[in-house]
# Entry
Amino acid sequence: MSNLESNLKKFESFKRGLSWSAIKKALQSGGCPICNIVEKSTEKYIEFLLRECPSDAEVHKRNLKSMGFCKRHSNQLKEIESSAGSDGLNIAAIYETVISREIKNFERVEDLLNSDSQNILKVKSSLKWKKRKIIESLSTSDECFICKNEAKTALFYVHEIIKIAADEEFREVFSGSDALFCRNHFILLISEIKDENNLKYFVDSHSKKILQIQNNLRSFIKKHNYQNTEELTEEEKSAVEILLNYFGS
Ligand SMILES: [Zn+2]
Ligand SMILES: [Zn+2]
# Structure
């Protein structure tokens, strides 16, 4: 079993062991509880990848499928690598196979372009054909595997929340906190719910919270009128950030 696979197993058991208190903490941190958990979990995952897996065969295999990580996770890799005091050596090792594959891709593309004059069929010399072949050579078969891992983590915790959604304690914390599922995770939550009462609870509580955002935004804008002398409240000050977290998921 590769280092990555064995760690993923440990990771799964870590997630299963995560108690109500961790979900509670994510709810009380404000914003989307799923985003909060995914963010922390990804940070740990990237730290592990960089520390333990730069030469792990499974990491290389997965990273080749997407030809590297997405922009967001590339930035996060850079940040975590540098905050661990490394100059990028671990990232360089993870990307060794990707850059080799890219060289091969371009060799293939060059061959295609150079063999053009020997093509008897006219179709193979058309610009359209060349472009299609180049794009085919560079296309990937999968998305960034950290993104895939995030999607799995999100689904896992959505299920965990659904399991406890009818508990009084959960409802008390959720309704009384600034927790607000982001739009995408709210849709995910709704798609996984199998109980009418839970469905109604989440829709109702979310509607209330969204209405509150609108009220805060309106008074935030209104108070920017030059005639206004009233101070902004804390809720109004954070209204834009809450708005962006909700829609920018
Ligand atoms: Zn979210
Ligand atoms: Zn990604």
User: Anything to note?
Assistant: Residues 69-70, 72-73, 144, 146-147 surround zinc ion (ligand 2) (CB under 6 Å). Residues 108 and 114 are 10 Å apart (CA to CA). The mean pLDDT is 88.
